[in-house]
Every structure is written in C-alpha cells, then in structure tokens.
Amino acid sequence: MNRRDTFLAVLVASLWGFNFVVIDWGMGTVPPLLFAAIRFAVVAVPACFLVPRPAVPFRTVAAVGAFMSLGQFGLLYLSMHLGMPPGLAALVLQAQVVFTIVIAAVVLRERPSRAQVAGVALGVAGLAVVGIGIGGSITLLALTLCLLAGLSWGIGNVVSRSSKAPGGLALTVWSATVVPVPLLALSLLIDGPAEVGRGLAHIGWHGALSTVYTAGLCSLVGYAIFNRLLSRYPSGQVVPWVLLAPVVAMASSWALLGEAPGPAELAGAVLLVAGVLIAQGTIRVRSARRAGEPAVPGAVAGEPVPGEPPRAAVSVLD
Fold first, then answer.
1. Where are the transmembrane segments (predicted)?
2. Is residue 309 part of a domain?
C-alpha cells in the first residue's frame, strides 16, 4: 500500500475504534437492534437517491449488507447491550482479521504471506491473552455474540473484495438499504412494539449525536474508504490495519468512560499492534532460511525479490 492509502487505513481504524465508545454512550434506553436499524436508515436514506448503484449484481450488494452491516452490527449491539464493555468489544471483534484471511485464502485463493501469517498469529495471541484475563467477568453469551459479529464481518470483507466494486461509497450506501427493515423486524419481535415505541420517543440528543457519528463518519466515510481499499489490495494487506481499532477504543474508553484496561487487555493490545506492524512489513522478522537459500519459491539466491528493494538480512524498522 502507498503512503496515502496507509494513512487512510489508519484513519478508518481510528474512526472505528472511537465508534465503540460512541455506541455505548448513545444507546441508553434505546433497544440495541432498533438503535442499529436507525443507524443504517440514516446511512441509506436519502443517500441511495443521490449515489448511483454500484456496477455489480444486487445480490452482491445485498450480501455485503447482510454480512458486513446487518450481521456484524446486529450481533455487536446485542453483545454490548448484554454487558460487553466498549474496549473489550473492540478487541474481540478483531477476530474478523483471522476469519477474513482464512476465508479469503480458501474462497479467493489469496495466499497470505509469511509476514501476514506471523502478524495474525500475534493478533490471535493477543485476543487469547485478553480472553484469559477477563475470566468470568463477561457472560459467555455476550462474548459469543461478539465473536459471531467478527465472523459476519469477515465474510462481508471477502464478499466486498470479490465484488471489486469501483469506489467504496456506492457499495456502502446501497448495501445499507437491506439492513434497517430486518433489524427493525427483529427488534419488534424480541423487544416488542411497546419497547420499540418507547425507544423512539426517548432517543434523546445522546442517541442522535451517536447516530450522526456512527452513520456519517463510521459507515459513510469509514466503510467507503475501507471498501475502496479492499477493491484495490488483497484482503491480507488491508484488514490487519483494523487491529489498531481496539487500541483507540481502549484509550478512549479509559479517558472518557473511566474503563481502565487491566494487564491482560494492555498485553493483548501490545500484541495486536505488533501483529499489525509485522503483517504490514513495518517490522521485518529475520527468516530462518539457510544462507544462500532464495527468499521466495522460484527466486534466485542472491537476487532481489521482484517488487521489493534489496535489503540486508537483518531485522529493520522501516
């Protein structure tokens, strides 16, 4: 990725990291599925009347909406409603990185590099550290729902990548059109019409500002950039950057909500950041190759790898 797209990837991760605090702050008395439905109604209307439909089959658009938005955020909002704190939710949701790379390898034949495998492995270790550290403080249902949200996001990433839709905004807007009605129907079924009506009447200015942020910056801006990057680069180059979102989420939760991270969360965050840096090649790990052995299959010993400048055989920080 070039520097501009790298900056955009970091910007998206930052927007999404702060998103968890904003969701927790704005949800209040509004049922979680209703709150998510309102968010995506704001994304879809009136933007779908102003933005042309992407040049891909509508079934692809619907699949992106079903997995990347409906499944991910419906499950995430329920998980947070059941007690998953914003910082931890951001960490656990990053299981999507593993899901994305594995699914892309199977479905799209996008074989991850050794650096990406090493980086993701560190990220998984970070999540495991966090999972061990939280012990029984979070209900199993809340944790499971958050992991399922990550799986749904991972599937959506692969669908978006395979569509190669030009421009990310159109896909973001039109995929959101399939989300509000199912979420509203589920909220009516689970919460009941009386609770839905009460939530709409008492959404308040917290809920309104939260919706503006989550719909405007996180969905319209964030997913437009993210889907555009997925259309230009393999999933393994784009998705690991999202591992930075939990660091932003934990820092903002600590500063604004008084949710101080414990030792396990801090250790997990360090491993996640290290995983991103290794996966993206910012930190290069010394290979265990024998002297003279080519760096990649088919390469000639002593010659540079195509597309990569010659480097000394030591670990460096770019």
1. 7-27, 33-51, 58-80, 86-108, 115-134, 140-159, 171-190, 202-226, 238-257, 263-283
2. no
* pLDDT above 80 (res 261): no
124 within a domain of the structure (yes/no) = no
Q: Are 253 and 85 in contact (CB under 8 A)?
A: yes
- Boundaries of domain holding 18: 3-113+140-239
Neighbours of 198 (CB within 10 A): 16
Question: Comparing 97-101, 125-129, 183-187, 307-311, which segment has the lowest mean pLDDT?
Answer: 307-311
Please give the radius of gyration of the chain, using alpha carbons only, rounded to the nearest integer.
20
Cα 92 to Cα 282: distance, rounded to the nearest angstrom? 24
Give the Cα-Cα-Cα angle 264, 265, 270 (nearest 5 degrees): 100
What is the distance between the alpha carbons of residues 143 and 258, in angstroms, rounded to a whole number?
21
The pLDDT assigned to 303 comes to 43
**Of 69, 63, 76, which Cα lies nearest the Cα of 23?**
76
Query: Is residue 180 one of the residues assigned to a domain?
Result: yes
The CA distance from 177 to 198, in Å, is: 24
Provide the pLDDT confidence category of residue 315 given band limits of 50, 70 and 90: very low
Tell me if 262 is assigned to some domain.
Answer: no
Count H helices, E strands: the chain? Answer: 17, 0
Please enumerate in sequence order all residues whose Cβ is within 8 A of that of 181, keeping only pairs 6 or more positions apart, or say none. Answer: 37
Helix residue ranges, H only, 167-262: 168-175, 180-191, 193-201, 204-212, 224-232, 235-238, 245-257
CA-based nearest residue to 261, from 246, 276, 242: 246
Number of domains the chain contains: 1
With tokens 């996966």, the residue in question is: 279
Nearest to 138 by CA among 187, 87, 96: 87
In degrees, rounded to 5, the angle at the alpha carbon of residue 189 between the alpha carbons of residues 188 and 193 is 35
Cβ neighbors of 69 (< 8 A, separation 6 or more) are 40, 156, 175, 176, 178, 179, 219
